[in-house]
Amino acid sequence: xxxxxAQQGTARTWFEHLRDLICAEFEAIxxxxxxxxxxxxxxxxxxxxxxxxxxxxxxxxxxxxVFEKVGxxxxxxxxxxxxxxxxxxxxxxxxxxxxxxxxxxxxxLANPHAPAVHMNTRFLNTTKRWFGGGxxxxxxxxxDEDTAAFHARMKAACDAHDPAYHPRYKAWADEYFYIPxxxxxxxxxxxxxxxxxxxxxxxxxxTQDVGRAFLDIYPQLVRRRMDMPFTDAEKAQQLAWRGRYxxxxxxxxxxxxxGLKTGGNIDAILMSLPPVAIWE
Length: 280
Description:
By secondary structure, the protein is of the alpha+beta class.
């Protein structure tokens, strides 16, 4: 992979910094619950199909008392897309060269009342340069007040940059995080954006605010629900819901496909899958 330019380096540094902030906060929650669980970090290297070094990343994984399984991964990769896959990527149809750096997070909670969550933000370069990502809440047992608080915080992050962002990106999340063969949404939504190109500084600032908004609101929801009592029936409801979540990520998720098509680390790509699930 070629040496990073200034924009690529700045984006990479931010994603790694956000990883550190999030992991520290999640470990603090575990300590509050009387657990000494910590993240383990596993570096990995990627080889491009051309045989050249293709970057790599670090998989962060924690299994604790509150977070049954949470992965926070960062990666910075580059090289060339293989075959027809390049035609499906913004700006890569004529030139399959690419660069990508980003953070990806999925958390599955032990308590079925505490919401699972997904957050991902990234910076990609082909013949074009853009940011994408978002965050969406995935509660096995939804609470209206949690859903409202999550959406309000995402809206505030969007409104600070463009009042048109939130209605557009909320609708995009509702459309994207949908399981067609089940005819249900994966969760209660959030925001999803892609191909945000043009002013690098402005788009980076927005992407940073999405990350900060997530870091602000999600730990509040976890602390609100993590000690609630639950029944065997509620745990079974959580495990059945996790099956639906796994179906989406394996069949429809673009990030999973991107990771597999670009030779990423398999464990890091599939860290989104829940530790235990059932199909009835």
